[in-house]
Write a structure and sequence with these properties.
Protein Transport Mog1p, Chain A, about 625 residues, eight-stranded antiparallel beta sheet
Length: about 625
């Protein structure tokens, strides 16, 4: 669960929109802070001045380690609360609720929950003197347990704890029964005068959506304000509340009885109860986490809206409270969300921005240090920004599914996995009948595997590497032909190298078992004209590690076609693996040829102590 996603209440006076009076200097554009790639970042309302405030030298896109999320700006704009967590790989680094200066300096822990307790979220009091926090803890009973959620406040140094209200429930596993307060606070915001709190509550025991409730900070009394609502933000005068809700039932998905859809932003008038949608027209993508500027002129929010057919990641947008002057502030990978206005400055001006794509997700520097560096396509591919990467041993996965073009027209999403040929994907593809043909490209061999509606896959063999491509098109009107795969091969380069590389990527090297078995199958089939006999004699369906894949005609035909195409291709080189593992150290090569000629870009060869086996296509 994402923590610290509540909104703060600004206490500055309204700015007058329009041109400044003669002799009066114009106010600087207001500032917004948000989270991006496990960092806290700031940007001006006109799209300028993007500044990374925390973890400035971090590896963006790392799947583990330290992450900073959920910035909360103090009412005076001088301090920022945020949550820092880590998965245990960085020992000795303070985590939890952190406090820093507006410029990112002076980071230190603000509050540490007691042992056994979990901090859900927090927010500033209206005067900035205290911090509201929500904490959850459990204790076991003979038949189940008791869960306690506490809403309380502390001073900014974490002392002077004052409990406002508690929600206690007890569950009995034997009777499958829950008693007590089932609606648990998970988020809190304060009115401008501090007289009331607005909490987001969630019922963990039903499929009901979250709701908003008033809380009296003196008595702890609760009352319902709005059903099916979350992430509230007050207008500066307190007369309206912006919130997010999936009540429209757009793109609803369900898991284990809990259903949710694409959220949209609504505004409710506190006195009359009238609710309206913030953005005009038909909903596009999901929008949430609204935050009202201190001058009341604009609302910042997170959205996945796209002007075209391609998916985009979460970005920061702003809009006037009447739904006019919609402005996109960010465009990049990783996602940007949880925006918070910094009090002061002007948010009145309307901007027509088309921010250039900023791809910051990259691969670990350790990948380029491998003896046989895997391949990638850089930080963008066909307009898609790389938004995820993962390294395991000598393998590298890179994923491109965040369209960076402002018209929303990018190639379909792509997944690329690159590893030494001992990954054994080729044999598995052939056994399951996933083989459509082969062609030479950039000195290597592109093998077309799968082609069905909305999906194509292929494998590229070069310089001792197997690089797989998967292209998936979920959107109507998007095609996924193999022309995209050829373009991807043309964009490949060694991992960590930013600029594209021209020329060959290294010679063809295939798994020895695939070459040997296809050769035997061709010979037997030529004599018997029986697919089954040829498959049995060549043992093409006898592979350790592949359970439940027996003889099938589709797979046998794939092996036969592969063997014929390989014979027409001529000589290729192959590698025999000691063990089926993705580690260069486990590779053993048997042949008479030297291996230096197959290496891309003069890299060191993990196969160097062995030899290469030539397939002469003599079947």
């Amino acid at each position: 669960m994402k923590t610290l996603f509540a909104t703060f209440i600004a206490v500055t006076a309204f700015a007058v929109p329009g041109a400044a009076a003669a002799g009066t200097p114009e106010e600087d554009p207001a500032e917004i802070v948000f989270e991006n790639g496990g960092r806290i970042v700031s940007i001006k309302a006109d799209g300028s001045g993007r500044t990374v405030l925390t973890r400035k030298n971090a590896w963006v896109g790392q799947p583990w380690g330290i992450n900073d999320i959920g910035p909360l700006v103090s009412p005076d704009g001088n301090s920022i609360l945020f949550n820092r967590y880590n998965d245990g790989f960085n020992e000795g680094i303070p985590t939890g609720l952190m406090l820093m200066n507006r410029d990112g300096s002076g980071i230190h822990p603000a509050y540490e929950p007691p042992d056994g307790a979990e901090l859900f979220s927090g927010n500033w009091s209206s005067d900035g003197e205290r911090i509201y926090l929500i904490e959850y803890s459990e204790e076991s009973t003979p038949t189940g347990g008791i869960g306690t959620t506490t809403l309380f406040s502390v001073k900014t140094d974490g002392t002077d704890r004052k409990v406002i209200t508690k929600a206690v429930f007890e569950y009995d596993e034997e009777d499958d029964k829950v008693t007590g307060q089932k609606w648990i606070p998970v988020d809190v915001a304060s009115t401008q005068d501090g007289s009331r709190l607005l909490i987001t509550t969630y019922n963990f025991f039903t499929d009901k959506p979250t709701r908003l409730e008033w809380v009296n900070p003196d008595t702890g009394t609760r009352s319902i304000f709005e059903d099916s609502a979350a992430s509230p933000s007050f207008s500066p005068d307190g007369t309206e509340v912006a919130f997010s809700s999936d009540r429209d039932g757009i793109n609803v998905t369900c898991y284990e009885g809990n259903c949710s859809g694409d959220a949209q932003i609504f505004i409710k008038e506190v006195s009359s109860g009238v609710v309206r949608r913030l953005l005009p027209g038909s909903p596009v993508g999901a929008s949430g986490e609204p935050d009202w500027s201190s001058d009341g002129n604009r609302i910042a929010f997170t959205s996945t809206r796209s002007p075209g057919i391609s998916d985009v990641g979460a970005e920061i947008w702003t809009v006037a409270p009447d739904g006019s002057c919609l402005t996109r502030l960010t465009n990049g990978a990783p996602d940007s969300d949880s925006p918070q206005w910094v009090p002061g400055g002007s948010a009145a001006a309307c901007f027509d921005l088309a921010p250039a794509p900023l791809g910051e997700v990259t691969v670990s520097r350790h990948v380029s240090e491998l003896k046989l560096p895997p391949l990638w396509a850089g930080r963008s591919l066909g307009g898609q920004l790389m938004n995820d990467s993962f390294q395991y041993g000598a393998s590298l996965g890179t994923y491109y599914s965040d369209c960076g073009r402002t018209d929303g027209d990018c190639m379909p999403p792509v997944a690329i996995d690159s590893e030494p040929v001992c990954g054994r994907s080729l044999n598995g593809d052939l056994m399951t009948g996933r083989y459509l043909g082969m062609e030479r490209r950039r000195g290597g061999l592109l093998i077309r595997n799968t082609s069905r509606r909305g999906l194509t896959s292929s494998s590229f063999y070069s310089g001792g590497l197997e690089t797989e491509f998967w292209i998936l098109a979920r959107q109507k009107g998007m095609t996924v032909g193999f022309g995209y795969h050829r373009r991807m091969v043309d964009r490949l380069r060694p991992a960590g190298q930013v600029e594209p590389v021209a020329g060959n990527l290294g010679g063809i090297v295939l798994p020895w078992t695939a070459v040997r078995k296809s050769r035997i199958m061709l010979r037997v089939y030529r004599k018997t004209h029986s697919l089954k006999q040829a498959a049995e004699r060549s043992r093409v369906f006898n592979e350790r590690g592949f359970i439940g894949i027996g003889y099938n005609a589709r797979g046998a035909r794939a092996w036969l076609k592969f063997g014929r195409d390989l014979r027409r291709l001529g000589k290729v080189k192959s590698v025999k693996c000691k063990r089926w593992k993705n580690l260069p150290a486990t590779i053993s090569v048997h042949s008479r040829a030297e291996t230096d000629s197959i290496l891309p870009f003069g890299g060191e060869d993990p196969l160097k102590s062995g030899k290469i086996l030539s397939f002469k296509g003599d079947a």
